[in-house]
From TrEMBL:
Gene Ontology biological process terms, A to Z: import into nucleus
Record GO cellular component, one term: cytoplasm
The species this protein was found in: Panurus biarmicus (Bearded tit)
Domain NAD(P)-binding: 4-151
Protein name: Protein HTATIP2
Source organism, top-level taxon: Eukaryota
One family name in Pfam for this protein: NAD_binding_10
GO function terms (MF aspect): catalytic activity
Amino acid sequence: QAVVDFERLGEHAAAFEGHDVGFCCLGTTRAKAGADGFVRVDRDYVVQAAELARAGGCKHFVLQSSRGANEQSRFLYLRVKGEVENLVQAVGFDHCTILRPAVLLCKRQESRPMEWIAQQFLGAVARLFPTAYSVPVEMVARAMVACVLQPGEEKVKVLENGAIHELGQA
């Protein structure tokens, strides 16, 4: 494990060398980092890490994005996620897999009251409609690994929430 300073990511290029696959789940919230900080973390750091990974020999980059990602969105979160998807694709990996999960079901160390309420509600809904509105983080992780172990022919593959469930259960 290499600890890097994201404000000086370029100084840590060696940490990105010699890896065939890169997994990126980096992100923050607007509430935690402010609008500018959110953009810096969720777009700028991710793109810079992707560029360093590609320069270091990475052939398959797997990016966790978000359901509804769209660079034309009026909502900052979805717009930034859409922008980063396009920027990472432009880096030129042999394979790029983008996962767009819905609400992530997980236990967090930090307190996010509204997210906790949503998770409680969506956890109950998931019993009836397991792939509709949420996905456990463990399933996302399994899907990320599975897409690398079973790469398709396409250069870019986008997995929506239902496909994440399918691949994560395989």
